[in-house]
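Protein modeling request. Please complete all fields; requests missing the sequence field cannot be processed.
Requester role: graduate student
Desired output: 3D structure, token encoding
Chains: 1
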Amino acid sequence: MVNIALKIFSTLLIVLMLSGCGQQVILNTGLTENDANDIIAELSRYKIPAEKLIDKTGVTVLVEQDTIERAVQILNTAGLPHKARTNLGEVFQKSGIISSPLEERARYIYALSQEVESTLAQIDGVIVARVNVVLPERVAPGEPIQPASASVFIKYQPDLDPDSIEPQIRRLVSTSIPGLAGKESSALSVVFVPVGIYQDHIDMVNLGPFQLTMNQYGTVKMVFLTLLVTLILAASGLVAKSKIQRRLAAKKGQ
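Delivered output (254 residues):
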């Protein structure tokens, strides 16, 4: 009877431990290899395990279901995954369709903004870079040409110093946009916004000298309850077996 109870306990314990590992769910899909690696590295800073799967559509990142909310908040704060950008070559691929001059100009401005954004995003500490470009244009015949201008939005991490990096950003943007080099500083506006700091909070439970997460505590509690029930069943079996043996011994003695 004791052996049977122990087998039942062992089986239940294995099931509980496996269920405690958590079911994996999709966090992001269709990622590049670099974005997937950046996401996994960022989550590992907060002790969140993640796995990646590679298929024809790209890389998929999986996390445990009970960590999905924290993972999403962490990635939003870190600006991950990175925004997919289009380069000049992709925008002006030959499609066989003749575009109007206005369409060509709009596509060129869009592609130019994307190229500058992509370059700014390579700066250490820059999480998000957005660039809006206005190229020189004559609004109406006889009117003066509207000068080139640009606005830059930078969301940055705490380790980046805006005062030290702003001159470099201004120089990079002004030399990348036609008609902007050598213009007065008012033609180029740069706005820096610090990223919101994610305050990671995990509800912990003290169990003797140990600190457990709520998920771990639930698993441990179920294990102990299972052990208690198993011991009660084993003890009941032993008592019943002892009574039966005494009755049999009494009958033999008569």
